[in-house]
Amino acid sequence: MASPESFDRAAALKEFDEAKTGVRGLVEYGVTALPAIFRHPIPRLRHSPLSSPILSVPIIDLSVPRSSAVALATAASRDFGFFQVVNHGIPLSLLSRTLSAVRSFHELPPSVRSAFYSRSTKTGVNYSSNVDLYRSTAASWRDTLQMVMGPTRPDPERIPPVCRAELLEWDEHVVTVGRVLMGLLAEGLGVDAGSLEEATCLEGRVMVCHYYPPCPEPEMTTGIAEHTDPGVLTVLLQDDIGGLQVKRDLEGGESVWVDVQPVPGALVINVGDLLQIMSNNEYKSVEHRVLANSNQKPRVSVATFFNPGDRGDSKFYGPLPELVSADKPPHYRNFTYEEFMGAFFSKQLLSRRLVDHFKF
Ligand code: OGA
Ligand code: NI
């Protein structure tokens, strides 16, 4: 039987969700203490004793000769699972226009933005707080506008007018960068540079536009709980606030959280679970998290998750055949996209290891 506490929690979640204005709505309302639904059972201390200033995520200049770019991107994907890129070819003015447009959406008057609030992804566009609100043990201090950009684009009319032009333009440029990166990473595996694109990995795109309002008690909650990204590759644009951290295993079994420092003009790239599988463990999908925002200003980020577009039940994903041999047996079985997403949605965002589900 449900305890009185869990009953109250369910009611509080519902009340929060039905207000349709997200965490930003709580801030507008003037909350000065963290509501109970956001309290994490184990406080995630900001200044974790494991934080280490000596380690930092590699920054790769994409204007270097191609062979160098392949070597750098490949090394970072094997080792860190994360890197930042500069000189990626996207106009810097578009980076700031995209972030401002997303900020403007989340700062629309409550009655205007609540019209977009929904947990249904049917139309391809939805605004909500915490995708896993009803599944996680504690909510996070974050709201999200999500768009499924591919394989089929939503009706542009569904995208909030305040950020429509920018997000459509952003998506086009992100595909261009995604194509370059997938080419480099495929080449680094020793397979044809077009292999990932041919496997339709540029086609299935989900764009999430996050807004992390200033948090009254940031040490008691989180911005995004630790997780790995399920797809192939993630391209993330962040503003200058910071808070994204990547888990890094050290020798001897210890791990530390490494800050992904905001670098003006840079994009953050990370390997997802599906690329770890397709690369037969050559590349690593690494846990990351975002601290609750302790700044006075809100934090904005825009992530594009690249997934395969071919979702038929006769299309199987698994380690690329070229990477498997008698010496290098496959670490994973093959599966359909539907099976893959089923495994993703059956787990909480908080728990990790989607890859374990398909391990031999
Ligand atoms: C994500 C994610 C990081 C960020 O959306 O999966 O890790 O900085 N976002 O918003
Ligand atoms: Ni992520």
What are the main properties of this structure?
20% strand; binds N-oxalylglycine; 9 helices; binds nickel (II) ion; 28% helix; four-stranded antiparallel β-sheet; globular; alpha+beta; eight-stranded mixed β-sheet; 14 strands; 360 residues
Explain what this protein looks like in three dimensions.
By secondary structure, the chain is α+β, with helices and mostly antiparallel strands. It is globular. An 8-stranded mixed sheet has the order 1-2-10-7-12-5-4-3. It has a 4-stranded antiparallel sheet with strand order 6-11-8-9, with no helix packed on it. A hairpin with a 5-residue loop joins strand 8 (244-249) and strand 9. The longest helix is centred in the middle third of the chain and has 26 residues, at 164-189. It has 9 helices and 14 strands. Residues 227, 229, 288 line the site of nickel (II) ion. The site of nickel (II) ion has 3 residues, from loops.
Topology (elements, then pairings):
Layout (H helix, E strand, L loop, with lengths): L3 H16 L2 H8 L29 E3 L4 H14 L2 E5 L5 H15 L3 H4 L11 E4 L14 E6 L15 H26 L5 H4 L5 E9 L9 E6 L5 E6 L5 E6 L5 E5 L7 E5 L1 H6 L9 E4 L7 E9 L8 E2 L17 E2 H9 L15
Parallel strand pairs: 1-2
Antiparallel strand pairs: 2-10, 3-4, 4-5, 5-12, 6-11, 7-10, 7-12, 8-9, 8-11, 13-14
Helix pairs in contact: 3-6, 4-6
The structure holds N-oxalylglycine and nickel (II) ion.
In short:
With 360 residues, this protein is of the alpha+beta class.
| Secondary structure category | alpha+beta
Main sheet? 8 strands, mixed
Strand order of the largest sheet: 1-2-10-7-12-5-4-3
Distance between the termini: 38 Å
DSSP helix count? 9
